[in-house]
Hints:
- Belongs to the PPR family. P subfamily.
- The chain is mainly α.
- The chain has 10 helices and no strands.
- The protein has 2 domains: 12-151, Tetratricopeptide repeat domain (Serine Threonine Protein Phosphatase 5, Tetratricopeptide repeat, Alpha Horseshoe); 158-189, no CATH class.
- α3 packs antiparallel against α4 and α9 runs antiparallel to α10.
Amino acid sequence: MKLRSPYDDISKEGFAIRLISLYGQSSMSEHACRTFGQLPELKCTRTVKSFNALLSACADSRNFDKADQIFRELPSRLSITPDLFSYNIMIRALCDRGSLDSALSFLDEMEKNGVGPNLITFNTLLNAFYGITGFLMASLLSLLPKHLMRIAGVPKLTVNVSAHLVNWVCVLFPFENLVNFTFSLLMLFL
């Protein structure tokens, strides 16, 4: 009968992801990076899931430069293709850093690489813009319908989609801004 080592679970990616995530929550991004680097020695395959855990650990630790470096360098070295979660983590990191222009550029980059945004992508951007401006910036408002149409798979912005947008704005924004938002939304139909 073989005795089990207390470290056998590290060869399972789920365990490694949890460990990397805990390092991130503890603001220990260097430990997360070291653990990710040691995964092959521990017979644990590095996939986009563990890559995303590492990105998230750096973002959670507010080590934004390291997250950006990892995103730019590791995928090609490790033959990992960033997925929607990877891009959402980076957009969140850029928004947390206050680099909203970079976050919007990242949105363009992800689409160029064949990864479509989802509602989490837009909620992250909307929350960041709301936190800075108190209301949606015109540039984001002009982007929103185009991307929502692609997400929803509808050929044009419908009344149903618009109603959901207006309802969402009613909940998050003061009523005096709702008039401006509704007017801008109506202009999109003309």
